[in-house]
TrEMBL record:
Domain Pyridine nucleotide-disulphide oxidoreductase dimerisation: 340-448
Residue positions binding FAD: 55, 118, 142-144
Domain of life: Bacteria
GO terms of molecular function: dihydrolipoyl dehydrogenase (NADH) activity; flavin adenine dinucleotide binding
One BP annotation, GO: 2-oxoglutarate metabolic process
Active site, per annotation: 438
The protein's name in its UniProt record: Dihydrolipoyl dehydrogenase
Misc. remarks from the entry: The active site is a redox-active disulfide bond.
Gene3D superfamilies given in the database record: 3.30.390.30, FAD/NAD(P)-binding domain
EC number(s) per entry: 1.8.1.4
Family: Belongs to the class-I pyridine nucleotide-disulfide oxidoreductase family.
Originating organism: Cellulomonas terrae
Cofactor note: Binds 1 FAD per subunit.
Amino acid sequence: MADTNGTAFDIVVLGGGSGGYAAALRAAQLGKTVALIEADKVGGTCLHYGCIPTKALLHAAELADNARDGAHFGVHTSLDHIDMNGVNEYKSTVIGRLYKGLQGLIKSRKITVFEGFGKLVAPDTVEVNGERVTGGHVIIATGSYARSLPGLEIGGRVITSDQALQLDWVPKSAIILGGGVIGSEFASVWKSFGADVTIIEALPHLVPNEDEALSKAFERAFRKRGINFNVGVRFSGVTQDDNGVHVSLEDGKTFDADLLLVAVGRGPRTSGVGFEEQGITLDRGFVITDERLHTGVGNVYAVGDIVPGLQLAHRGFAQGIFVAEEIAGLKPAAIVESGIPRVTYSDPEVASVGLTEARAKEVHGADAVETLEYNLGGNGKSQILGTQGFIKLVRQKDGPVVGVHMIGARVGELIGEGQLIVNWEAYPEDVASLVHAHPTQNEALGEAHLALAGKPLHAHN
């Protein structure tokens, strides 16, 4: 542990995940002295237990599908078996390289790191390992944990994503409780690895936070892949024995499998860290802030998964940078939540930014919104890749595009342009005049805007 000899810092950051370390790096870049307190490893859930390891598994799953389906492309390959020890070694190598790089960045910015569990004991002080670390400003970024349902205990064959990422075997069958991002990604991986997968989702659709058109297309794609799902009925209970898990729903249906993965979202990690004692307002465990991410207490700010809203690493990065610049007096523009891109990295991928059609109609009025869907069937690169899907645009009539929604292989790589379109309030005519390289999937975005601008090229009017 670093020894400060009682020295105060300009900024103390409690939590070294995406939001916390981004705040620390940017603050140090702006000339602030920074203490970063982390109970586990810098990089947090995203690097060690979430985004990065799951995407490593998804890439391995894609390779498995490619090997299995090579004959469709005239390449006669076959899939021998999935070596989970080898997959996990590859995953750990990726994490290790990124972790080493992050540690180097933190060291180069002269950020003082305290390893240990920190607790806010005053509006300007965090206690860690019996030592009090004081700052002119405090940024709390304690992250999230894998939630369960009331009465549903994790253990044995009932696991969360934390345990799923450590499995050294592929289940023959798995039930996944939750059809959101985490559940859908694990369903995709395990199906590619050869498991029989069933998703249980209480809401009417899989990926229920997406535009309904995407959710329905996603369900069709999963059905085609042989991924089973049951939507619209709540989970009732689970028992387990040596043979597996036995899941029941409120309508009386039952399902049996080797494992039950509980993927019902993530809860804010705010218990036992002193927030309420210092007067910080919590709502269902989340820290309530204003649009400048200030907690209303002293010089305490909050970023990342503990702040209500999208629980995404890149949101945490953006909020960390924002708060560092806010403290430095740069007066950054407030982050617009709807302008943050969202991606489900399954097969197929789902990517979106801005308002869904339903939300746009709520905001602007049903008669003031128009939409367009451009099918990837007309896109050359998508045909080469053998993927199906579409791009859906939502715009204000005679106004800017307010939502971009996509489904298909690799569409997550297109969301960068999508967020520029939405956040810069581009009109379809603005994007239609841009030249998109051919043949790329990115070209489909251009084609969709050409069509919405009233001059479709590779699409029927």
